[in-house]
Amino acid sequence: MRRKEILGCVSWVLLLYCIGTARSQCTGGCSLAYGSYLVKENDTLDNILNLFPGVTRTDVQQSSGLSDPNVIDKGSSLKIPFSCDCINGSFLGHNFLYAVRSGDTYEKIAKYYSNLTSPAWLQATTSVLPTQISDKGSLNVAINCSCGNPETLLDYGLFLTYPLKAGDSISGLSSRYNVSRDLLQNYNPNADKLGSGLVFIPSDTLDQIVKFFPPVTTAAVQQSSRLPNPNFINTGSLLSIPFSCDCINGNFLGHNFVYAIQSGDTYEKISDHYSNLTSSAWLQATNSYPETRIPDTGSLNVTINCSCGNAEVSLNYGLFLTYPLTAGDNVSGLSSQYKVTADLLQKYNPSVDFKLGSGLVFIPVQESKGRQICGEDYARWEMKIDVVLNLLPRKVSGMGNFNNEDD
After folding, report:
1. To 10 degrees, the CA torsion angle through 82, 86, 91, 97?
2. Are 177 and 235 in contact (CB under 8 A)?
3. Nearest-CA neighbor of 164 among 404, 406, 407?
4. 110 vs 84, 120, 191, 325, CA distance in Å?
5. Tens-digit pLDDT profile for residues 141-186
């Protein structure tokens, strides 16, 4: 939506009006949403959890990818998981019961919650006037959330409630959360440049990712990726996608996945869906559609290369990982990560410069006990997702203000 068509909510007071008008009704929620909590000085995980009763240390550790829950850095962001409920049939959110402290004001409480709420919203959703907050007792802190908007895209049902801060921009958030600028703007049509308020950021789910790899199942990916809890997967983590490694047309080893074309697709967009396990050039080479004439419907093949090993290098490996190199990768780092020697990695990938940060390499990940096996391979897929839940998207309007220098 173009900027001139957007009625921005320029303050939290006006933001309340937007909530009341654009989201005046809801009929149901979804089982999971996230709130982005910005860690402040002297915060501890236990103190933070006191603000979110019902959320456990394990929940936050898993959803935020904390290796040590006792160590959280100032300025880092935690993902607080909660159910996204239809409150009084009026809006989507979740009520957390807050224990009032002596001297509390709505401004102080909003800051405690890292601006996931606001003074005006607190007053609007409680029956207590700002001058009548007691020194004890409790009140509800309603945090807004989203279950999606089928008019925008049906592929997303898990959302992060993100409080914008000075310096945030649509391009920065797009890069940070691996979603397109257009998608962010479509889910938050009332956002403008003021750098305050809330926006809802869509996340992939494991079920949605598996749809790109038919007939791979969610259970197979959970097992191959050794996910202790399939409900929590973190941005930037890696999944192993198992598939058969076939000899395609007698020319090369790979596997064809059937991709359902969406209107507006380009080979570059499709490549992004597959986290660079393929490329726009390879897609064009293995399909009959010219780049400029991809139809709006139908299907095409997404061919992912694989390896069954090389008898001249070693007979001890027959299961390989197709790994898309990224910036910062090098042969010693991958050698340490996958517990194979740097020399063996280089021999299996003789023409590869591991420092280039692009292209595919094949990593031996399992001994085959003196024989080469082919028929199953793995692709290492860089995650753009956070959690594994099949959530029902519902129509919800966004709110907040981007500090958007790009438009």
Report:
1. -50
2. yes
3. 404
4. 19, 9, 20, 42
5. 999 999 887 665 556 778 999 999 888 888 888 888 878 888 888 8
The amino acid at 272: D
Q: Are 322 and 304 in contact (CB under 8 A)?
A: yes
348 and 405 in contact (C-beta within 8 Å)? no
H runs (alpha helix) in 250-341: 267-273, 280-285, 331-338
Residues of the chain short of pLDDT 50, as ranges, are: 1-24, 369-373, 381-407
Instruction: State how far the Cα of 87 lies from the Cα of 320, in Å rounded to an integer.
Output: 50
pLDDT of 262 reads 83
Residue 124 vs residues 164, 223, 246: alpha-carbon distances, Å: 21, 46, 61
Element (H, E) at 218: helix 218-225
**C-alpha closest to that of 235 among 167, 162, 286:** 162
| Contact indicator for 186, 200 with CB cutoff of 8 Å | no
Omega within 30 of 0 (cis) for the link into 215:
yes
The residue among 89, 115, 69, 119 whose CA lies nearest residue 28 is 89
As a dihedral over the C-alpha atoms of residue 201, residue 204, residue 205, residue 208, rounded to 10 degrees, the angle is 140
Contact 247, 306 (CB under 8 A): no
What is the H or E stretch that residue 270 is in? helix 267-273
CB 54 within 8 A of CB 69: no
Q: Is the pTM of this model over 0.70?
A: no
User: DSSP 3-state assignment of 89?
Assistant: coil
Q: Are strands 91-99 and 377-382 parallel, antiparallel or unpaired?
A: unpaired
Would you state the pLDDT for residue 15? 33
Q: How far apart are CA 38 and CA 75, in angstroms?
A: 6
Structure tokens at 298: 């139908």
pLDDT score recorded for residue 355: 86
Report which of 207, 171, 249 is spatially closest to residue 387, judged by C-alpha positions.
207
Place of tokens 């394990």: 58
d(CA 241, CA 381): 7
d(CA 202, CA 7): 22
